[in-house]
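*Target chain*
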Amino acid sequence: MNPAVKEDEIRIKEAFADRNWSEIKSADSWVIFKVMSEFVAGFDRLAKIGPCVSIFGSARTLPDNPHYKMAEEIAAKLVRHGYGVITGGGPGIMEAGNKGAFEQGGKSVGLNIKLPFEQQSNIYIDVDKNINFDFFFVRKVMFVKYSQGFIVMPGGFGTLDELFEAMTLIQTKKIGRFPIVLVGTSYWSGLLDWIKQVMLVEKNISPEDMKLINLVDTPDEVVKVIDDFYSKYLLKPNF
């Protein structure tokens, strides 16, 4: 049997297994304290990082991929314009974002998540801003709490999760109307067409919601969206 399938079966069986109250209490209490410790560590180390922009994208993007090179250039330009960069801390687009920021001497933050494969911290994260998480939801809080903009490069399920998380929080006014920038017309146009032609037509979203998204193709366009936002609201560092 495939080891991954076997592991899934074990987890599913454990979810249905009967546990006595003592087991439930001790296990759940440990999880609560673990979650608290991750929140405390994140809040403590990110409280004064100043204005930052998150860059999302695939962990599987190789350094010779044009998307990697573009993410690196975007991060470098952001730093030169006074912003720090936050990524998921891993390889691929995340590494490119941290590399671009790090090599320009800017703040380079990595919010790494422990996964069975493909995810490990890249070498371009500031030592004091490299944070590891076990829980996706804690990591997401750090992204949205300390970012004043979201740049979304081509990616997979995780990237879509981060994109729609940001959109939902802005739509429901749980966070400010920070800019969301999708990079790559050819990559994202199909998704946006579906949103417009299906979700919007079915009235599951409003026309106003479409204004949450900026679709661009060049690093200069990305930085302009962020700069225009900051200029409009006269934002200052968050400390």
Summary: The first helix runs from residue 3 to 16. Helices lie at 3-16, 21-46, 66-80, 93-103, 136-146, 157-171, 185-200, 219-233. Strands lie at 52-56, 84-87, 108-113, 130-133, 150-152, 180-183, 213-216. DSSP finds eight helices and seven strands in the chain.
